[in-house]
Amino acid sequence: MDDTLSRRSLITGAAATAGSLLASPSRASDPAITEIQPWNQELGSPVDAAPYGMPSQHEADTVRRNVEWLTADTTSSINFTPLHRLEGIITPNGLCFERHHSGVADVDPAKHRLMVNGLVDKPLVFTMEDLQRFPRENKIYFLECAANSGMEWRGAQLNGCQFTHGMVHCVMYTGVSLRTVLAEAGVKATGKWVMPEGADAAAMTRSIPMEKALDDCMIAFAMNGEALRPEQGYPLRLVVPGWEGNMWVKWLRRLEVGDMPWHHREETSKYTDLMADGKARRFTWEMDVKSVITNPSPQAPVTHGKGHTVLSGLAWSGRGTIKRVDVSTDGGRNWVTARLDGPSHGKALHRFYHEFDWDGGELLLQSRAIDSDGNVQPTKDALRAVRGTESIYHNNGIQTWHVRRGGEVENVEVG
Amino acid sequence: MLRSVRLAVLIALTAMPATAESLGLGRVATSDEIAAWDIDVRPDGQGLPAGQGTALDGEELFSDQCAHCHGDFGEGVDRWPQLVGGFDTLTDDRPVKTVGSYWPYASTIFDYVHRAMPFGNAQSLTDDEVYAITAYLLYMNDVIEDDEFVLSQATFGDIEMPNADGFGEDVRPDTPALSVAEPCMTDCTKGAVRVTMRALVLDVTPEGDGDEPEEADAERVLEIDPALAEAGAKIFRKCKSCHQVGEGAKNKAGPILSGLLGRAAGEVDGFKYSKAMKEAASEGLVWDADALSGYLEKPRAYLKGTKMSFAGLKDREDRLAVIEYLKQFD
Q1: Is pLDDT of A301 > 60?
Q2: Domain end marker among A282, A310, A336
Q3: How do strand A252-258 and strand A113-118 relate by DSSP bridges?
Q4: Which residues of A touch B99 (CB under 8 A)?
Q5: How far apart are CA B330 and CA B321, in angstroms?
Q6: pLDDT interval class at B208 (50, 70, 90)
């Protein structure tokens, strides 16, 4: 349909309500319209068929997936958020990626305690009920595993944004500010670090500098309006906005205040970034500015052929809000600024769109985000030039998707 | 960040008595409660409990409680972490980061083993046992030379890890920000951009669902096609980290694969097979070309519970090639 035709159809549309002039008697009619569908005729399920509602059976592909060969065992493993099937900026609770070090702990909230000890005026113990009596706050934050895109350091590996970028999610947390809970115990002047500890069999620990602890950290008991999911730390988790996911200790049971960092396994053996010279960076906490095109992407090819096409993606930064996202369709040679849509919260996902007329030819899609601090998402080559390929964590390089003529999409590297 | 720190200071200053700010929530922890949970250990030795152990004591504990995942010598079985070795590999193409080659502090071994190992039975070891296992890991990594060295609160300070100086601070942002340059918008590359690498070539992405229809892989007699076997030698590199063949071959993470064609599954002496493999063997699984092709295509789908942590060879040609290669070794 060309332009003039479509304009004409708009004009005549109003006049032609009954028996449209444009109705084509020759074209085969759509049975989805001409035939009565079962859901038109028969009664559906009654209320309470599913006391906790589930997605439509037609959305069965919208699930987390893991990559089996990555880890020895699924109890110490990860799976990935299906970013290519999601919209907006909020991740549904059941699709938030999982990373456990000793499986999902099944904690009885009646027996869950939070202890605050170390360099405090009085060491305290709280029940879940105690914690819910503190003033509450609601905040939207992304959580990204530091190893997100970590498999891509050496080049294009996994074919799907679920696998290359799916260790990120974004939800609204409800909880208590960490500052308030620490104040209740009274942090001593010598207290410079806080160590959260989990109640699971990994008893996860990290060292967090007091400045961050008193800034925007939260102790959350709810996400997206309901209690935390077990795999996200039910009944209590730490929220460390903008910082790597490993620090957001789940099943949080203890906070110790100290005068120096602990240098525990998760901040020495893991979550340190090995550079090409054999030295490693430690305490690399912030998650850098990053973006990815979620549609089209390898698991979400273009199926409609040439014509008007909606490109959609996500951008985020642990250092603030997203100010701008640029999109390229020719592998980074030329860029246009994409349209940001939806709310813009600091340290939260942002949604961007770029609508264009696809001529059916090959495309090399890229997105490049810029945050409110002025940080620009680098190319993968720029990152490798400074860090080498063995640092595992903090890969925020620009992703390239190759769209073929048929609309299939592949993860590629360009040069 | 600054604003809220200032805010906290302000709250602290305006508070009348220290308790006036308090909401009166929670209760004071007892010293027994704190002792039960406060097990963390720091590089300066804070948190180390009373007790002691030697590498000699640790060896047996390790072989009983740790070796089935981490290997008798800490070399790591399958994809379970390797704990020993990897010295001088940190600048290599594939660095091997272990307790010995990478960890900056010995206190971290004590703390981590105490809180999280053995995997699946955490916090079951006594303090003496943790000292002994820590000593054993240090001994295996040549950090201590004497297997009767007594590791305790008193001697912990003497331990120096080889990579203690291997860590520096975060120096990000380390790529150009807006303040350095506005990002280029037009004609940003010299000429057209080319694809340099493709994920589909590697083919390591898990499939959604629906396997391709089975082809018959059988019917190749023990006659060797040299070109195919040569191609198979290249494929076998993927197996080499776990399997050896030919003269002097030993069991590694996986069993020796010499004389494989026609042999019963799960038969190599001295190799600890999974329960799944033993069961399949008792049900008469024999490694003919067909069975091998099935197993190698998707090990875990073919034999649920197998401990071979290998994604599989999706390409039929690759499977035929590696089988051809393996035929050469009796």
Answers
A1: yes
A2: A282
A3: parallel
A4: 269
A5: 17
A6: low
**A215 and A176 share one domain:** yes
Q: Last residue of a domain, which of A230, A249, A282?
A: A282
Please judge whether A115 and B166 are an interchain contact, meaning their C-beta atoms are less than 8 angstroms apart: no
Residues 140-159 of A with CB under 8 A from B: 155-159
Instruction: Let me know: does A369 contact A319? Beta carbons within 8 Å.
Output: no
CA distance, residue B81 to nearest chain A CA (Å): 9
Q: Does position A250 have pLDDT exceeding 50, yes or no?
A: yes
Asked if residue A298 and residue A178 are part of one domain, the reply reads: no
The ipTM assigned to this model is 0.91
- A212/B contact by beta carbon, under 8 A: yes
Judge if A176 and A214 occupy the same domain. yes
Closest CB from B78, B170, B174 relative to A386: B174
Please list, in sequence order, all residues whose beta carbon lies within 8 angstroms of the beta carbon of residue A54, skipping any fewer than 6 positions away. Answer: none
Cβ-Cβ contacts under 8 Å, A131 against chain B? 25
Same domain, residue pair A278 and A358: no
Question: CB neighbours of A107 closer than 8 A, spacing ≥ 6?
Answer: A199, A200, A230, A234, A235, A251
A60 falls within a domain: no
Best residue of A179, A216, A247, A264 to probe chain B, by most B CBs closer than 10 Å: A264
Is the CB of B179 inside 8 Å of chain A's CB atoms?
yes
The predicted-structure confidence for B292-316, as pLDDT tens digits, reads as follows 999 999 898 889 888 888 888 988 8
Please list every residue in chain B whose beta carbon sits closer than 8 Å to the beta carbon of residue A365: none
- Whether residue A377 lies inside any domain: the answer is yes
Do A297 and A381 sit in the same domain of this protein? yes
Contact B224, B324 (CB under 8 A): yes
The CATH code of the domain that includes A331 is 2.60.40.650
CB pairs under 8 A between A and B: 274
B contacts of A216 (beta carbons < 8 Å): 1, 4
Do A238 and A373 lie in a common domain? no
Same domain, A247 and A124: yes
A152: CATH: 3.90.420.10
CB contact under 8 A, A68 and B123: no
Question: Is the Cβ–Cβ distance between A237 and A251 less than 8 Å?
Answer: yes
Asked if A102 reaches chain B (Cβ–Cβ under 8 Å), the answer is yes
Nearest CA in chain B to A389: B93
B5 pLDDT exceeds 90?
no
Instruction: Classify residue A65: in a domain, yes or no.
Output: no
Q: Which domain holds residue A247?
A: 78-282
Ramachandran angles phi, psi of B247, nearest 5°: -65, 140
For residue A253, the chain B residues in CB contact (below 8 A) are 37
pTM of this prediction exceeds 0.90: no
Are A139 and A185 contained in the same domain? yes
Across the interface, of A65, A179, A375, the residue whose CB is closest to B206 is A65
Instruction: Please answer whether residues A136 and B53 qualify as being in contact, where contact means their C-beta atoms are separated by less than 8 angstroms.
Output: no
Residue pair A413/A156 in contact (Cβ under 8 Å)? The answer is: yes
**Region B236-260: what's the mean pLDDT?**
86
A314-356 confidence digits (pLDDT tens):
999 999 999 999 999 999 999 999 999 999 999 999 999 999 9
In-domain check, residue A31: no
In this structure, the strands spanning B151-152 and A290-295 are unpaired
Domain count, chain A: 2
